[in-house]
Amino acid sequence: MKEAITSELKQRWGYEVVLEKPKDKKFGHYATPIAFTLAKEKRKAPHLIAQELAQLLDNSPLFEKVEPIKGYVNLKLSETFLDQLATQALKKPQEFGKANLNQNLLIEFVSANPTGPLHIGHARGAVIGDALSRIGKHLGNKITKEYYINDAGRQIELLGLSIFLFAREILGKEVTFPEEYYRGEYVRELAKEALEVFPKEEFEKEEIIPKLSEWGKEKMMERIVSTLKEVGIEFDSFVSEKELYRYWDEVFELLKANGAVYEKDGKIWLKSSEYGDEKDRVVVREDKRPTYLAGDIIYHYLKFKRGYDRYINIWGADHHGYIARVKAAIKFLGFDPDKLEIVLAQMVSLLKGGEPYKMSKRAGNFILMEDVIKEIGADALRFMFLTKKSDTHLEFDIEMLKKEDSSNPIYYINYAHARINSVVEKSNFSYDEIVEVELKGLNEEAKSLLFNALTLPEVLQEAFIKREIQKVTDYLKALSAQFHSFYNQHKVLGSEFEKQYLKLFLTVALAIRVGLALLGIEAKKRM
User: Domain limits of the chain?
Assistant: First the structure.
């Protein structure tokens, strides 16, 4: 819709136009402040320019009313134009909301350590990354979804040690647990399984620990992938941090050649403070082992060599401090750090009946993602995790998601879609008959509902470009509430405007269905 309007304005006025939505609906569907931009060039007052521009749109079929007010040109769309858009959308529903942004993007998300099951903190980043990928693809981008497996370093060794100790305890051996080990019941379950996989005599010696580390990591990755699949999340590629270190010499030589590192106190430091970091960072320890940051540097070096237009990382908010150092490394490696975007996902607090949600002993006092899925379902989990801007704290009570009223947003949205489906089924008209009817003579409430249903494409674009998926959930909640209000106040079946209302409703249902699908949720036809 917006593209058609801006194209019409450019054709008639000869200028690129920015459209805004007036806060007061009485001023129209859109407004443009272009007269203020042209004032200096034309050496005229904005209100005079606005009057001239408005006159150039006198006979445009797109607008019912064009009004210059205080330098703005306010635009009220015509029923004919809105009807054309609705007809087009309903005839080609699979194309509704699509665009041609044409970027090649790599989106990396989740990347949880494969040392335990996914908890709800991981879930938020997972859902955000997947929804962003779905919307981006719908808008004509080529998207690669990637999982960076943090399988190098101390935490994987610790997993193997923890499995080893629990296995020995199960075998009746005397075991002294160190201060640091993985305590969750899931580790004991892994130990039981390990005793069936590996010969029991191997548990007499610590030499088995590296094998257990690798085996345990693979088992955890299987569980992580399975949990993600339960909510419809799958990846195009997986990258192992452990495998990356074979490229360290190549990357380190490039850093040295570009003057990015220096030696001090027996360590090798990255000059990250030269590019916005608060201080320089260690990349090689005294014992010559590369640090965790070195792994990130290698990963981003290999990422950028793949030649995507942009790279988007969904990180937990606790990784905020890593942004400057990673971007500094990218700059030193000869790439453009502005091509890397970091979307931060804040933590989630779950309540149940107003009380903190019970943590899982199986996970070592985390709230497991798989437990929440069992309790509220994948659709509710996905929707609720997308209802706020990613970098703000999210808190909600799962009891709310069991209610069948307007306080439960996913229920209320699905109810709108199911309600429309039911009304259309009860009518005596086929889908094609409804689509062909011309929308005219509608009251202002109906036209407002139609307009809002047709704004989904611009909502999707704004949500994707700003990386703010909550704009889609906000839109779906508002559209559904507007539909329910309209439906409760107007007779549909057997009324004078029956076919027109049905076409209006089908347009609303399409917007809901497409919007939910791009959040990873299938709209319900019956409830």
Answer: 2-77, 404-517
Q: Topology of 404-517 in CATH?
A: Isoleucyl-tRNA Synthetase; Domain 1 (1.10.730)
pLDDT tens-digit series, residues 6-56 = 999 999 999 999 999 998 888 899 999 999 999 988 999 999 999 999 999
What percent of the chain is helix, strand and coil (3-state, nearest 5)? Answer: 55, 15, 30
pTM of the entire predicted model? 0.94
Q: What is the SS3 assignment for 467? A: coil
The answer to whether 188 and 166 are in contact (CB under 8 A) is: yes
Coil, helix or strand at residue 65: strand
In terms of C-beta distances under 8 Å and separation of at least 24 residues, what long-range contacts does 86-91 make, across chains too? 86/439, 86/450, 86/453, 86/454, 86/503, 86/504, 86/507, 87/435, 87/436, 89/454, 89/507, 89/510, 90/435, 90/503, 90/506, 90/507, 90/510, 91/435
Is residue 140 within 8 Å of 102, Cβ to Cβ?
yes
* Percent of the chain whose pLDDT exceeds 70: 99
b/e per residue 55-66 (b: at least 16 CB within 10 A): eebeebebbbeb
Q: Does domain 2-77 correspond to CATH entry 3.60.15.10? A: no
